[in-house]
Amino acid sequence: MESERRPDPPAGEVTRLLGECTSGDRSAFERLVPLVYDDLRGIAHRRLRSEREGHTLSTTALVHEAYLHLVDQATATWQDRAHFFAVAATVIRQVLIDYARSRGARKRGGGAIHIPLRDELSGKEPRTVELLALDEALTNLARYDPRLEQVVECRFFGGMSVRDTAAALDVSERTVERDWARAKAHLYRTLAAEPDPEDEARARE
Amino acid sequence: MLEETTNDAGGRWRKADEIFVEALELHPSRVARFVAEVCGEDVALREAVEGLLEAHRSASSFLERPAEDVCDVPWDEILESTRPEEATDPYPDRTGERVGPYRLVDRLGRGGMATVYSAERVDGQWDERVAVKVVRRGIDTEDTIRRFLAERQILSSLNHPNIARFLGGGTTDDGLPYLVLERVEGTPITRYCDEHRSGLEERLDLFADVCRAVQFAHANLVVHRDLKPSNIMVTARGRVKLLDFGIAKILDAAADDPRTRTLLRPLTPEYASPEQVSGEPITTASDVYQLGLLLCEVVAGRRPYEVRALSPARMEEAILTARPRRPSELVTEEGARDRRTKARSLSRRLAGDLDLIVLKAIRKEPERRYATAEALLQDLERYREGLPISARSDSVAYRARRLLGRKPWLAPTAALVILAAGGYVYTLAHHARALERERNVARAQATRAEEVQSLLAGLFRSADPFTPHDSAYGANLTVIQALDVGARRLRTELADRPVVRGELLLAISQALSDLGQYDQSTRTAEEALRSLGTAPGEAPDLLGRVLLQLGALAAWRGMPDSADALYHAAVAKARSAHPRDDPALAPFHASLGRFQYDVGRLDSSRLHLERAVALERAADPVPEGDLAGTLANLSDTYRGLDEMDAARTAIQEARRLDEKVFGPDAVQTGFALVSEAGELEQEQRLDESEADFRRAIDILERRLGAEDPNTTAAMNNLALLLASRGELAGAESLQRRVLDIRRRTLGEDHRETASGMQNLAAVLSREGKYDEAEQLLGRASEIYRRTLLPGNQLVAFPLLTQADIRLRRSDYPGAESSAREAARILREALPDGHWITAVAECRLGRALAGQGRLEEARPLLEGAAEDLADREGTPQEKYLGACRAALARLDSLPAAEADRGS
Q1: How many domains does chain A have?
Q2: Which of A15, B520, B609, B878 is a plausible cystine mate for B634, CB 3.0–4.6 Å?
Q3: Contacts with A99 from chain B: Cβ below 8 Å
Q4: Is B344 exposed, middle or buried (0-12, 13-18, 19+ CB in 10 A)?
Q5: Residues 226-245 of B with CB under 8 A from A
């Protein structure tokens, strides 16, 4: 039988806020972020204590669990679900960036978290960029078009499908696909123009 | 870094972005010119756009793997810095409260849907502890409560030593539904086995108990829906206990609500079946799937896919599409130690049959899994006894079924069945006829839907004096909606008259299936079955008819195993209700007989159809329309058994009856003539065949119009006959007419239009009009590839004709490539040694011989000639001739001897 005990947030609060997430109004969304953040951490915490050695915690599993935990399954709609995962995507971004910051400021090498910029198939030398650089470029990009930031949060940080992203942002799948291509091109262009930190590291040696 | 967001930079960003987006829509060859045009003299803008386009090309993999995969989120480290405070539980702990006759003693745990307490009787009558599940606030919708009340009775009848008993339920004082269940003290099966270091045999024993319990529940029409190790306990004394049987359905309140159908179900991702992920109906097959996963985990220690660590989209994708790993590949040393053996020897024991059993249980398509838990168990037992298992034959049998796979509800395009090679698509007219018969039945019963509706309306009107007098459901409801409403109301009403309720539900189910609403129809028939289940033994004939309806529905829905079981159960019930020679049994035998034909069991088909014919003949008055249908089906069966005389006699009698019932000019007579013409052609009685075709076309054209698919199908068949008689000009003009009609009525891109092109091309190639033929074939090929699944044998047909043309043109390398591709597809799609494949191999052999590669050509030609040998005396004889001629040429070549000698 179930063995976990865990606290719940005020009943229905999350479900209600999800219902208020509309494309124009981000206030409900922003109020959800801390709720989801706390819950994810709470679940992760209990999981780590109870899981056997050797299990890595999957973020996705945590998000799913938080969803079941926080959202009233009887009344939630598919769109609520998509909104929830979009909130979770923002949370994951925040968690990752906080963590990356705590590992050491940019450009000091060592602890930085890297993500791939391009692989062998691009026809160029494979290289990576720092997660913090991506974050910075993404924040900048949002100043031109905030939806591009949301699409990248959903797709990259949240691992969401095009379909779910479209539902979360209340736009067509075609729009998501186009925005995704736009965001990727802008970010890539910005990030590729920066010097490769690994080259720098090599040069310093 | 990024440009500053001065107005100027912002303006340029937007402009560049806009042009970039437009350029993405263009054909690559036009991009450069477009960019140059719109940017004009603005060099900075042009560089920005070109930079974005360049970035777009290089960024194909950038960000495509989710952050979780590429960063490996270190939750443990993250948590170390920020420990969340242990918050208090804002939900009231009900420990100590009284719920019905129980007092909640201790909270055992909570899930997404309910909190579980251990509880004891207040009156101390028994000191047995129970588990009480209190549904969470928010789940306590009207729908849940209704469902809950409906299920309660069924669940409490689920009495099995390996199933934790459902003891009852009710609602708490503050209105939350609760369930009382037998309290089980035990360990999840997987952990139990590992802790006891159980060997494979002991594990399989426990698993067999699980299967039996699940089978018992299925027989009582209860599906578990959430089988997983934590729901399958083993007690300290080694007894298996399944928890929460059918509970998921009660808790899954949102499941039937169309608003939330696509919502992520409150399911266990690790054990979710494809249909649960995609929101398809959950059936007993879902339990079989979960049993398969469980079997894998119990014997091998791991599940065939790991979905826990995946993103939501990828998790769904994995469940829906990933190829599962075999149990024998999943064995680890640690796992083997828990089974008191070595990894290598465990892997060897699992490899083969056990792998196949697991893979069959967890197939993505529910209808390809074991039909029942019992079937799974039987295979497992056969494996343990060293007998051949049924899962082995699955792929061939499945392919054969697929080949025969007829889904009449896809009418009328599905009436086209591929029969002939050389690019010929032959219409099985008798199938179209069977279809039409069904439609007629539906039409004859067209009023049924309305009758049932008004019956229901009257029923409820009298039951409810407050309903407005003229329409109980509002005038704007469609018949289907009204039927659905009726079915739903019947769920709660007439509970005290289960037989009447069953009869009404069956009527609604039939009306719904007449209207093509197979899902709703199935649900309603299942409801009828349950209703009758509460009155055991009272109406065996009605029960039989309900089962027959369910069988037909399962067959229509492409679930042959379930259909088989249901049809047999129906016949058994009907036999228990009627004397052996009662004409009332005829429809049961007729349906089962046709079904057996569809799945390829011809002997059994003959048995039942002959019985049905005998019963119908004995009835007074003889139901001539029914008898004609049964005879037509019997004729198909006879032909399948290669009893051509009997087939012809049967079809002729069917035709006579049709003419008598419907008149000589009736559409039915037209269909009968097409069938008969096909028989005659197969027997090489070509003059008679042609005459029948012409008469049929005449009738169909007058009654249905030239553009009706049945008329064009008959024209197509006549054109094929003319072509095989060498009347190429006539064949060509008829095929042009068919193609023309299809283009007009179905559109240029339709699959049947492609078939028309294919058939016309075949005639043209024989007339030497190669260019037009090749052009049509290329077009047909393209349409097939776009509209058919890869591996469909139809894709091979244009290639086959193309190979033929190229052989005629002495373009041997070209012919080789077409024939090779065709042969590859056909080998994959058809059973071994199929004559169509042989035709492809023969053409490949001829193409190779033409290039002097005699050593490669000979085995192909010899094999093909052998596979074609039984085509002598049929219209396909010519392919055999071509093949033998090529072999003869090969032998006559002096080079061949030298080649073979070397």
Answers
A1: 1
A2: B609
A3: 73-74, 77-78
A4: exposed
A5: 230, 243
To the nearest whole Å, the CA of B46 is away from the closest chain A CA by 14
pLDDT digits (tens, 9 = 90+) for A174-193: 899 999 999 999 999 999 88
Q: Which two tokens stand for residue A196?
A: 């490769």
All structural domains of chain B with their residue ranges: 7-58, 98-182, 186-402, 795-902
Closest CA relative to residue A129, chosen from A111, A112, A116:
A116
Closest among A85, A190, A72, A12 to B312, alpha carbons compared: A85
Quote the pLDDT of residue B691: 93
* Residue A93 covered by a domain: yes
Candidates A1, A58, A68, A91: best to mutate against B (most CBs of B within 10 A) is: A1
What's the 3-state SS for B579-630? CCCCHHHHHHHHHHHHHHHHCCCHHHHHHHHHHHHHHHHHCCCCCHHHHHHH
Residue with the two structure tokens 């009627």: B578
A96 closest CB neighbour out of B71, B243, B259: B71
Higher pLDDT, B885 or B402: B885
Residue B88 has a pLDDT of 32
Q: Is any Cβ of chain B less than 8 angstroms from the Cβ of A57?
A: yes
- Which positions in chain A touch B89 (Cβ < 8 Å)? 5-8
What residues contact residue B542 under an 8 Å CB cut-off, 6+ apart?
A: B499, B502, B503, B506, B532
Using CB atoms within 10 Å of the CB of residue B873, give its burial: 0 to 12 exposed, 13 to 18 middle, 19+ buried: exposed
Q: Is B871 within 8 Å of B884 (Cβ atoms)? A: no
C-alpha torsion B520→B525→B526→B528, nearest 10:
130
Q: Determine the average pLDDT of the residues in B585-612.
A: 86
| Residue that the structure tokens 């606290």 belong to | A7
Q: What is the pTM of this model?
A: 0.37
Q: What is the pLDDT of residues B441-478, one digit of tens each?
A: 444 444 444 445 455 544 443 333 223 333 333 333 34
The structure tokens listed for B103 are 């007092």
Q: Give me the CATH code for the B186-402 domain, please.
A: 1.10.510.10
Tokens 């776009």, residue?
B786
pLDDT tens for residues A131-170? 888 999 998 898 888 899 999 999 999 888 888 898 888 8
Does position B26 have pLDDT exceeding 50, yes or no?
Answer: yes
Is the separation of the CB atoms in B816 and B851 below 8 Å?
A: yes
Which CATH superfamily hosts domain B98-182?
Answer: Phosphorylase Kinase; domain 1 (3.30.200.20)
Q: What is the CA radius of gyration of chain B?
A: 33
Residue A2 in any domain: the answer is no
CATH number of B795-902: 1.25.40.10
Q: What is the DSSP code string of B462-527?
A: HH-TTS-SS-TT-TT--HHHHHHHHHHHHHHS-TT-HHHHHHHHHHHHHHHHHTT-HHHHHHHHHH
Domain that holds residue A19: 13-204
Question: Any catalytic annotation for residue B692?
Answer: no
Q: Is A203 on the interface with B (CB under 8 A)?
A: no
Report the Cα A205 to chain-centroid distance in Å: 35
Q: Which of B110-119, B683-692, B820-829 has the lowest mean pLDDT?
A: B110-119
Q: Which helix (H) or strand (E) holds B891?
A: helix B877-892
d(CA B393, CA A169): 49
DSSP per residue, B236-249: TTS-EEE-STTHHH
Q: Which of A68, A80, A67, A66 is nearest to A16 (CA)?
A: A80
User: In chain B, which residue's Cα lies nearest the Cα of A155?
Assistant: B66
The DSSP bridge pattern shows strands A114-118 and A127-130 to be antiparallel
Instruction: Specify the residue for token string 């003889």.
Output: B622
Q: Is the pLDDT of residue B187 over 60?
A: yes
